[in-house]
């Protein structure tokens, strides 16, 4: 299973990716988490990424693509993977297509979580009380939503046109959202 999880900041990608990936026995690969790890370690990648993350902008495609290429080449991703927050640009879609095709596989499904705009902001402001994330300030949270609409929302049509899109209502309790995703994925397996 090779899955993509999409959705605006605060939609619950990370929360749900961990649960769904565990259920399928594949790694959840979050580009945001990998960047934050590198920021924490003070690596050159982290120093480069931090400039963009703090402003709520996307890290350049060249940096992000090579990081994902290396990560999905690791042995634990051989049976499959769940990409949380990648691809986010059309250039990343093209790059991912090449990576997956080169390994003789294909993307099986792209799950997009939909959540009301104000709920997104409220979730992230609540997380800001404890997360310590430098991009969880109200201005940057709102800018991240704009960047998503401009650069990533158009990808939804790309995966819809390929017949790979599964849209899931991300409102409500975490467990209810998980159940909706699992049901949608089970539906694919039996269709
Ligand atoms: P990333 O870490 O991926 O941040 P994001 O996309 O802004 O998403 P979030 O982590 O804020 O939200 P989420 O949808 O994962 O929701 P979560 O489960 O955490 O990326 C950070 C930055 O890295 C980017 O801005 C960019 O700079 C860079 N980057 C990453 N990928 C990149 C790429 N491909 N290209 C270029 N740059 C890239 O939940 C959010 C909160 O809501 C949590 O507190 C959670 O507990 C809560 N919550 C979750 N579900 C529910 C629910 N059902 N009800 C109530 N609360 C809930």
Overview of the structural elements:
This protein has a single domain (about 1-185), classed as Rossmann fold, CATH 3.40.50.300. Helix content is about 60%, strand content about 10%. It has eight helices and five strands, in the order E-H-E-H-H-H-E-H-E-H-H-E-H. The chain has a five-stranded parallel β-sheet, sandwiched between helices. The model has no long low-confidence stretch (mean pLDDT about 95). BIS(adenosine)-5'-pentaphosphate binds next to helix 1, helix 2, helix 3, helix 6 and helix 8.
Strand coverage percent: 5-15%
Integer-rounded radius of gyration: 16 Å
Give, in spatial order, the strands making up the sheet with the most strands: 2-3-1-4-5
At the fold tier of CATH, the topology name is Rossmann fold
Tell me how many strands there are.
Answer: 5
In round numbers, the mean pLDDT is 96
Q: Unreliable stretches, pLDDT < 50, 5 or more residues?
A: none
What structural class do the secondary elements suggest? alpha/beta
